[in-house]
Design goal:
192 residues; alpha/beta; Rossmann fold; five-stranded parallel sheet; 9 helices; 51% helix
């Protein structure tokens, strides 16, 4: 896909366009929906790590959790993310727990631009209530689970290169906020 010199993507520094962009955050923060729209705006390929894991395992994530446990799932998740980041630059949406794994987090921070989509608990509860496929919510109160996860995971998500709020507004608002942040972002290690 050729880039129009006046397109929003042309405002993004070349050092970022040459890297994958990885979205992290709690379940319901909008990683997959925002990721698809961001990839389209940037003229990049989109992948959802959870979909790629299910394809590789030929099982649903819920089935992997139930049959083999979370540790097995996290190992497979790390390997799939490593494979995806070794390819052409893309926008990658990860599962909520991917960035919590030390090895996966180091890989993401080294090989991509990592963006934390941060949403408040009420927004997350409303969004996760739309679907029932999340193993960590099985037979539990979503609000309680999300509060517990936020307490543990938010300090780790804060290690991401950028933090973008994902409010209960349309996802296009979040995409615009990311595009603006990308156009202004500089990291001396990447020689912007």
């Amino acid at each position: 896909m050729s880039r129009n010199p006046k397109s929003p993507a042309s405002a993004i520094p070349a050092s970022i366009r040459d890297r994958s962009i990885v979205l992290v955050g709690l379940m319901g923060s909008g990683k997959s929906t925002v990721g698809r729209r961001l990839a389209q705006r940037l003229g990049m390929r989109f992948a959802d790590a959870d979909d790629e894991i299910e394809r590789a395992a030929d099982m649903t994530i819920a089935d992997i959790f139930e049959r083999f446990g979370e540790a097995h799932f996290r190992d497979g998740e790390r390997r799939v993310i490593a494979r995806l980041l070794a390819g052409k630059p893309m926008v990658l949406a990860t599962g909520g727990g991917a960035f919590i794994n030390d090895e996966t987090r180091a890989l993401i921070l080294r090989d991509s631009l990592c963006i934390w989509l941060d949403a408040d608990i009420e927004t997350l509860v409303e969004r996760v209530g739309r679907r029932s496929h999340r193993p960590l919510l099985k037979n539990r109160d979503p609000r309680e689970v999300l509060r517990e996860l936020a307490a543990v995971r938010n300090p780790i998500y804060a290690e991401a290169h950028l933090r973008i709020g994902s409010a209960s507004t349309p996802h296009d608002h979040t995409v615009r906020a990311i595009m603006e942040a990308l156009s202004e972002w500089k990291d001396p290690q990447w020689n912007n």
